[in-house]
Design goal:
The chain has about 300 residues and is an alpha/beta fold. The protein has helices at about 25-30, 55-65, 85-95, 110-120, 140, 145-150, 165-170, 185-195, 210-225, 240-245, 250-265, 280-305, and strands spanning about 1-5, 10, 20-25, 40-45, 75-80, 100-105, 130-135, 160-165, 200-205, 230, 270-275, 280. The protein folds into 2 domains: about 1-245, TIM Barrel, CATH 3.20.20; about 250-305, no CATH class.
Length: about 300
């Protein structure tokens, strides 16, 4: 994603193609997560953990986060809601451990984000720990910009939306069908709100982890909608997701040609030029810069993970 500041394009290049949910109560899963090719690990204390295991999960996840043993992977912890019997204890323990972000479930308003931020800071959350918001309630997707505007507040930690399509289906009665036609409007609105406030946005999960074709199609749809990546429920989904959300070799080559064309002396200062038989504008040059920057960031991360 990118933004324009004083006429200069600023590009955020941290890949977030794949965000894998890992149950916080499963010690073996937490250990395995240290070797998986996921850009983001979401260590889950909420839906993936039974009530009797909540305290154990909290302690295991807090210890794993504090160990800083996940390498370059972005580490996010989904806590239980503050209205539950576990939420506040989760927030205190996880804030002190200092993950890259805390994922807040069932966010309904900007005020809810502010409440979590105040409590996290009181619990000693490091300055770099961000807040990510689950967009899984009807009231949230009806007016996502109202929540995204929490990022306008001075010192706001809000950095991302995560789509909760399963909960949206449960709350509305919408069917989770191939193509997701019933939800496309909400998904697109959330993308627009996230981009308005310079937030990352991740797509919801594909539930059938044996359905490779369905996963690929849904990843392509999320990519085309403008999502930064997709949340996943099984390690077997990582390869497909990473591939779809990575710029292809052809896309990178085309982007280089656009950048190089605008850099030529005869084209400097022009708003539109011809490249490869089509007219391109300065906005296409900005898109090309973003594509190249993301491709380079992906290569750098993958090389370090494999090294």
């Amino acid at each position: 994603m990118s933004r324009t500041t004083g006429g200069k394009l600023v590009i955020k290049t941290r890949p977030r193609r794949s965000a894998l949910y890992m149950p916080g109560s499963n010690a073996r899963a937490l250990e395995k997560a240290r070797t998986l090719p996921a850009d983001v690990l979401i260590l889950d204390l909420e839906d993936a953990v039974a009530p009797v295991a909540k305290a154990t999960a909290r302690n295991q996840v807090a210890a794993a986060v504090a160990d800083r043993a996940f390498g370059l992977r972005e580490v996010v912890v989904r806590i239980n809601g503050l209205d539950s019997e576990w939420g506040r204890d989760d927030l205190v323990a996880i804030a002190a451990a200092g993950p890259d972000a805390i994922l807040v479930p069932k966010v309904a308003s900007a005020e809810a984000v502010a409440v979590v931020q105040d409590l996290a800071e009181a619990a000693g959350a490091p300055a770099l720990t961000r807040l990510w918001a689950m967009m899984e309630l009807p009231v949230a997707v009806l007016d996502p910009l109202a929540i995204a505007r929490a990022a306008e507040e001075l010192g706001s930690r809000l950095a991302a939306f995560v789509m909760g399509t399963n909960d949206l289906a449960k709350e509305t009665g919408m069917r989770l069908v191939a193509g997701r036609a019933p939800m496309l409007g909400w998904l697109a609105n959330c993308v627009a709100a996230a981009r308005t406030m310079n937030l990352v946005i991740l797509d919801g999960v594909h539930n059938d982890f044996r359905d490779d074709a369905g996963l690929a199609a849904e990843c392509e749809q999320g990519r085309d909608l403008g999502m930064d990546g997709k949340t996943l429920i099984h390690p077997s989904q990582l390869v497909t997701c990473n591939k779809v959300f990575s710029p292809s070799a052809n896309e990178v080559d085309a982007a280089h040609r656009v950048i190089e064309a605008f850099a030529r002396p005869e084209n400097r200062g022009l708003a539109a030029i011809e490249v490869d038989g089509r007219m391109v504008e300065l906005l296409h040059a900005e898109i090309a810069q973003r594509t190249v920057a993301m491709a380079e960031a992906i290569v750098a991360v993958e090389e370090k993970m494999s090294g």
